[in-house]
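ingest -> validate -> predict -> emit
validate: passed (alphabet ok, no gaps, 577 aa)
predict: started
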Amino acid sequence: MPRQFLCPVFGSSLWLALILQSLISSAATYRRPVSGGKRQSFLERTLILLDVNTRSPVKVLNDNFLSLQLDPSIIKDGWLDFLSSKRLVTLARGLSPAYLRFGGKRTDFLQFHNLKNLAKFRGPGPDYYLKNYEDDIVRSDFALDKQKGCKLASHPDMMLELQREKAAQMQQVLLKEQLSNIYSDVTLTARSLDKLYNFADCAGLHLIFGLNALHRNPDNSWNASSALSLLKYSAGKKYNISWELGNEPNSYRTMAARSVNSSRLAQDYSLLKTLLQSVRFYSRANLYGPNIGRPRKNAILLLDGFMKNGGSVVDAVTWQHYYIDRRVTKVEDFLKTRLLDTLSEQITKVLKIVQTHAPEKHVWLGGVGPAWAGGTSNLSDTFAAGFLWLNTLGIAAAHGIDVVLRHSFFDYGYNHLVDQNFNPLPDYWLSLLFKRLVGPRVLAVHVAGLQRKPRPGRVIRDKLRIYAHCTSFHNHDYVRGSITIYIINLHRSRKKIKLAGTLRNKTVHQYLLQPFGTDGLHSTSVQLNGEPLRMVDNETFPELKPRTLRAGRTIAMPPVSIGFYVIKNINAYACRR
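emit:
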């Protein structure tokens, strides 16, 4: 598949003439006096010309393109009991519409029991408060049961403090399991499923539930008894859920000393499809998979065999990608262009297989995060991780990946969007801006840059990444026909961008994200156009106010920053319909 995402450059003489004309005009307008002998100003050497093809989109994505994931570990560390928090629901609702995938490494160790929550299923907690803590949870459950419709709670500070203490102890157990690749079973009760669905429903998210694929019969066929019990319970509650089976089946040999080949995996999915059709409420439910891990040799072979042997039973093909492992300790690693480009290589491998066997199938990036194994403290939860996250969204969109599921919305470790104090981290604010400003229609970007002599494309090839979409139709601050451009500047210097062609002399709204505070790229706080972003209260977001750039003004991107730029009233044909 041709690489359309890295800002293709016009090759026509008309475009070159436009470049020269714009540069002459820009130089006349912006040239600074220089002292003897300096040949060109800083501006002239770094000016970048940017235009967008507004006639037709190159890709059209799912309305839920940016979606979310929750790991089953929230059952073990106790946080599932707090998904009714008004603040958590508000934060999740800010990213709707979206899918919510309930899955991860522990998907294949989930056991469903059609019971109300009992203390023995909750997992360990500090003895000195466990009884009182359990009593508080039960009282909270009774209070929620009395509510009609969306069930929301305001948990006392002391209760949250005790939960954080329990979760901190449990986090060490969870990380040890993940690093050793040896997992214990996770019990999902009916009450737990109720809470999970209530959270998704209240937040406007569509739940995708991952079923345990390692529950096997002696002949290695999939044992569907637990899944059938869960399906019948969910159908009785009329829970609108989509389904998937297993997580990273290419890793089963190391996780459980058991392997599932591609033929068997395809048979398992066919069995699940038959099972869904046998439960009337889910006869038309969507099924996604096979959710392979990073597409290296074994995973690619498994995916290829799965698609050959009946994998077309799925409604979308899913896979996962992580950029780095948790041993990375330097912020500079998050800025390496070679690392950012690995995603494009992996996407190309997956698309090649899917287009060979089922070209009509959508492809989803079913689990993605900056770092593997829970992430790295003071790195994957900081502003620096935002470069990887926005790069993922931009590259995936340009390749036509239909949905990207972020691991994780709220979780143990350091890959999440919301921390355990229920405060949004930098990647959350980045996601919120993306949701509000970026629509599913992807536009072709055309860029040319000048250093000491015309060398089209040279400036922007690696460290300045530019993407364009139609502005989201859900944003009523902008009329249809507006365009949103988002830019990643990995340079340690400021870069200046001149809008040309169809974008020339248009008013621009700037949403510039930079780290807030003295920690720089290690900061867990973010500022928008110089103003720090914080929740006003548990149910109110801050106002995301743009800075207006007058028509014809050059965009100045500060070093290592992220910017969204809405071109207003451009009446782009691709964005009107």
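Residues 27 and 44 are 7 Å apart (CA to CA).
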